[in-house]
From TrEMBL:
Protein name, entry field: Carbohydrate ABC transporter substrate-binding protein (CUT1 family)
Annotated Pfam families: SBP_bac_1
Domain of life of the native organism: Bacteria
SUPFAM superfamilies from the UniProt entry: Periplasmic binding protein-like II
Organism expressing this protein natively: Promicromonospora umidemergens
Length: 437
């Protein structure tokens, strides 16, 4: 019996294996000899428990009829999925065929470890698949070292959620970050428990949403392989975000991630909130929201470099390198990410990655009209990452998040950013050595 291990322990085991895993996989394959799948074996999909997976599950019978093979889909939480991948793929397991992975969290490590199949010939050689129909930012995020290793199926951008009743006198949603700060400071009544702005402030969890502020100030996490968090643009973004939450946000915000910040806006205690567009339904649910009739949706406000939000694939499909059913696995990817399926699911409220689907207004009809336009604009302006593109993502977010917290606390951001910049540069040297293929 295999004993369960914690995600942290699994991560440690994975990191220790970097230097030898590729060679070990080759030796293991040689020792097993040629293998073929049993004709009656099911196609096994190990997936995240997510609205996309639940939706695609309803249509599995039509795919089973298409390939003449049964499909078994197992859905896990994100932590369970990480642990299961680390255990099974380290052992070159063949009982997983298709995987849902996080391109910005898992993909680089999985590719480095030789765990996911190179799909380049399939996505580029299959003219009916129309690889170039996928939006540029999610499509680029699906590659590692020039090779396509996943296909994006769920996308996400930030949205500005705002109180239409309160911002009416200000001309509606702010168009610029400067305007947003001014309005937030004007509306905050902190002594009465009402805030001009609420957002993530927790050191690690805030980085992904802060990224759009960073890009809109003209910065990025790295430049030419070196840290970018000590640049004037990054420092300005840290200072802006710090002031916004320090002067207009709730107390204790440095301990807040999505789960703590979202209810503050939903309960009518903040005028504005920027977070993932995927959470919009929380503000329309009368069981948990008091702002169902007053919430508005707007694109990310423009900074000195314009409005530059992220447009990321939050979940993608990949094929296990050790699968014995690669052709059927590819057929699953083709089917699940086809224009027809993406249009069907986007019409049900699950944003996909195909531009042709986004260009069809009917696929956005299930979203509030203002939100649909917000998503369309942010997708057009967005870039494909919301965190550093590194092997050890969690550690990188901790380093990058340190000046962010300092800004919220009203501390000396340039000094802290300089120290974090040096630490991040040292980290990148080690991380770049690990990611060499």
């Amino acid at each position: 019996m295999t004993l369960p291990i914690s995600p942290r322990r699994a991560g440690e085991l994975s990191r220790r294996s970097f230097g030898v895993l590729a060679a070990a996989s080759v030796l293991a394959a040689c020792s097993r000899g040629p293998q073929t799948a049993d004709p009656g074996a099911p196609l096994r999909v190990l997936a995240i428990n997510h609205v996309w997976t639940q939706a695609i599950g309803r249509y599995l019978p039509e795919f089973e009829e298409r390939i003449g093979r049964r499909v078994v889909m197992r859905m896990l939480t994100a932590d369970q999925l990480t642990s299961s991948f680390n255990v099974k793929l380290n052992a070159s397991a063949t009982d997983i065929d298709v995987m849902t992975i996080r391109p910005l969290q898992d993909q680089l490590m999985f590719a480095r470890n030789g765990w996911i199949a190179d799909l380049t010939d399939r996505v580029e050689g299959d003219t009916g698949f129309r690889w170039t129909d996928f939006q540029e930012a999610p499509r680029e995020r699906s590659t590692v070292g020039g090779a396509a290793v996943s296909v994006p199926v769920v996308t996400e951008r930030p949205a500005l959620y705002y109180r239409k009743d309160l911002l009416e006198d200000f001309g509606g949603a702010p168009q610029t970050l400067d305007d947003m700060l001014d309005v937030a400071l004007e509306l905050e009544r902190r002594d009465e428990g009402f805030f001009g702005y609420v957002g993530r402030g927790q050191r690690n969890g805030a980085v992904s949403q802060w990224s759009s502020f960073l890009y809109s100030f003209g910065g990025d996490f790295t430049h030419d392989g070196r840290s970018g968090i000590g640049t004037p643009e990054a420092i300005a973004a840290y200072q802006y975000y710090g002031r916004l939450l320090h002067e207009a946000g709730p107390p204790g915000v440095t301990n807040m991630s999505l789960e703590q910040a979202m209810p503050i806006f939903a309960q009518g205690k903040a005028a504005m909130y920027i977070d993932a567009d995927a959470i919009y339904s929380n503000f329309l649910d009368e069981k948990i929201s008091t702002v169902t009739d007053t919430v508005g949706f707007a694109p990310f406000p423009a900074g000195p470099a314009g409005s530059v939000p992220h447009n990321i694939p939050s979940w993608s499909l990949a094929i296990n390198e050790f699968s014995l059913l690669r052709d059927d696995s590819w057929e699953f990817l083709r089917w699940a990410s086809s224009p027809q399926m993406v249009a069907r699911l986007q019409s049900e409220g699950i944003p996909g990655a195909r531009q042709s689907v986004w260009d069809d207004p009917e696929t956005l009809a299930s979203f509030p009209a203002e939100l649909a336009e917000t998503m369309r604009v942010n997708a057009a302006n967005g870039i494909g990452h919301d965190r550093p593109d590194v092997m050890q993502v969690g550690r990188a977010r901790d380093i990058v998040g340190r000046p962010l917290v300092s800004g919220i606390l009203g501390e000396d951001v340039p000094a802290v950013a300089a120290d974090a910049d040096a630490e991040f540069n040292d980290f990148l040297v080690r991380d770049n050595r690990q990611r060499e293929f």
